[in-house]
Specification:
Blueprint: H1 9-13, H2 20-23, H3 57-67, E1 74-77, H4 79-91, E2 98-101, H5 108-115, E3 119-122, H6 133-139, E4 144-150, H7 162-171, E5 177-181, E6 205-210, E7 223-227, H8 229-238, H9 246-255, H10 258-284, E8 288-291, E9 298-303, H11 306-315, E10 321-322, E11 332-336, H12 340-355
Helix pairs in contact: 4-5
The chain binds pyridoxal-5'-phosphate (PLP).
Amino acid sequence: MSVLDLARPEIRAMQPYSSARMEASGGQVFLNANESAWAPVGDDGLGCNRYPEPQPAALVEALATLYVVRREQLLVGRGSDEAIDLLVRAFCRAGEDAILIQPPTFGMYAVCARIQNAGVIEVALQADFTLDVDAILAAVTPAVKLVFICTPNNPTGQLVPRASVEQLAQTLADRALLVVDEAYVEFTDAGDASVADLIDRYDNLAVLRTLSKAWALAGARIGSLLANAEVIALLKRIMPPYPLPLPCVEAALIALSGWGQVNARNHVAIVRNQRARMQEALRQLPGVREVLPSQANFLAVRFDDAAAVYRQLLAAGIVVRDVRRYPNLGDALRITIGTPDENGRVLSELKKAAMSGRGVTGKPASGEYA
Ligand SMILES: *Cc1c(COP(=O)(O)O)cnc(C)c1O
């Protein structure tokens, strides 16, 4: 059995759109795509009058090197969000198939499923936000085509052990594609906790990576899917013809250059240090119930009165993420790690409230938190 047997048969059978850019090779004068023959003002040699390569060779090469996979095992698109959407559309028949997720987790998996009219089966994370492998396996029905796991998980921050990923991939073979979202993996203490090396061993394993977080390119929208070459080839059939704007590709290539990499690694190191600092400092504050251990560039923090803290920070011009709508996080805010200065502002704002005698709860602080 091939992993493609899990995909929608009509997608496997369809004839993909063949764009002018794909058909052009070896030419010198391009009169096949109705482009302008003249570059726009301010183009500066970029060549924006031409349609971009569907999968820019230099970028694919750089990303494949970074993630240590073969080029045919990588699809680059507009953020990992696009890869999530493509996976759902290629594998889930509307009204019949389903995805499986573990709340509280990243919202886009369910959003893409709902757009496709695929079912969403939820297996909650355990009380300590670790993955319940047995519960997941027990919940996988024949309708489930994709199982998403997020590691480190957004919004809680913990890592899924590699052994759990392997157990899931192995047990789900021929039943479902396991999609491991590693958007924050660069921030883990271990440094390289990626499971991308396992895609050679499990053809039903796919890994999502992004340049949006550790690589500081959220605005350029560059994400990758690493998977079996057959899965990548299938998704290329349904991807829009020219997904990646030239200026974004250019920005990514600079970020992935030698000095770009040094820069990114420096910032990741600062984030790790600051994460430890914030974890420690927040735990000491009155009104803070718990700081969840995190391997990502954010902390989920439980407060006695999260709504009041949210409003208080906002009044000081600091915007954090209110995650109280997520299961088991009814008292929590998610705070991204910023510059040392920005983090200091968060701490001094929260301390100010505590010292004003109100605590961050709006109630008297003295004796309340002993
Ligand atoms: C931020 C984030 C992404 C990144 O999405 P992009 O589309 O690549 O910007 C993916 N997964 C999770 C869990 C995230 O938090």
